[in-house]
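Quick one:
INPUT:
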């Protein structure tokens, strides 16, 4: 029987929301969280009793754990590197441990919870194994998430897709920094862009993005690059999209204008709302913020180069 890999992430309970959002970027089928910081209150609210198992009462209330499970054919080292990079960028102290666990049909069970999903006004995201859907006139974006972040269910991805709808024009060239599954670049192409380049530091993400481009019939218009931010990028783009963490956006924004035309649009997301103003201020040194969108604690900014 094939073995899955369990990654156990130990963090301070105060960071559980941010840390779990980042963990959800690694797997599309959910995570398991242990957080005992409000044990008594939660038990009373749910069960209306004050009798709690002694072993539970002994749990450290300041420490939380996130468990994620990787399929047998996924390299744990790549997931560990992704998590460590994202947590360091957000200043989240963490410890990562791995162990083997048995395959109990998890490979397919999670798929039943991933349904065709309308996004914005023009897009329907369809998991490749689902044929029971009606596009109702929407552009169908076929997606096989694999390990790479980007299924359209996360607020940051949805914010970006809805914003791309508003700004992408027929014939545009698109740069997607931190492309993950390639969903944003591919959506841009399906909405009329002429070509798109996706770049990600994670080789698994880049492979998944290429496969998803093929699934959607846009592989001839899509180029994928393994690289850190824009270190291997060339050319100019009408639309630049970055769905990455706050610190990476701040770092990227210092030099990204060299890849933009005077009237290009710059879309940024993956920004936790507590850092929205900080990112806007940093980006505002070289750009005019022309729009801001929010969804469930996440922020998306739209900017143009200052004249």
């Amino acid at each position: 029987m094939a073995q899955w890999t369990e990654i156990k992430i130990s963090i301070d309970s105060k960071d559980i929301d941010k840390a779990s959002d980042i963990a959800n970027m690694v797997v599309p089928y959910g995570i398991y969280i242990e957080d005992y910081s409000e044990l008594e209150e939660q038990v009373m609210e749910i069960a209306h009793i004050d009798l709690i198992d002694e072993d539970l009462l002994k749990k450290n209330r300041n420490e939380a754990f996130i468990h994620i499970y990787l399929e047998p054919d996924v390299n744990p080292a790549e997931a560990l590197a992704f998590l460590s990079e994202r947590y360091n960028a957000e200043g989240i102290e963490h410890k990562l441990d791995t162990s083997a666990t048995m395959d109990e049909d998890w490979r397919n069970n999670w798929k039943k919870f991933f349904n065709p999903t309308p996004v914005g006004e023009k897009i329907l995201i369809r998991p490749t194994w689902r044929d029971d859907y009606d596009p109702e006139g929407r552009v169908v974006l076929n997606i096989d998430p694999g390990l790479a972040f980007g299924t359209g269910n996360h607020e940051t991805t949805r914010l970006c897709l809805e914003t791309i709808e508003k700004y992408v024009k027929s014939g545009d060239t698109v740069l997607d920094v931190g492309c993950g599954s390639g969903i944003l670049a591919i959506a841009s192409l399906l909405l009329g862009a002429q070509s798109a380049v996706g770049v990600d530091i994670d080789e698994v993400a880049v492979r998944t993005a290429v496969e998803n481009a093929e699934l959607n019939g846009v592989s001839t218009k899509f180029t994928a690059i393994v690289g850190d931010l824009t270190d291997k990028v060339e050319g100019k783009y009408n639309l630049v999209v970055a769905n990455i963490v706050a610190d990476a956006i701040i770092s990227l924004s210092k030099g990204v204008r060299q890849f933009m035309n005077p009237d290009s649009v710059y879309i940024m997301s993956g920004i936790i709302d507590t850092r929205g103003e900080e990112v806007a201020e940093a980006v505002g040194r070289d750009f005019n913020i022309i729009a801001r969108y929010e969804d469930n604690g996440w922020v998306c900014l739209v900017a143009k180069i200052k004249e």
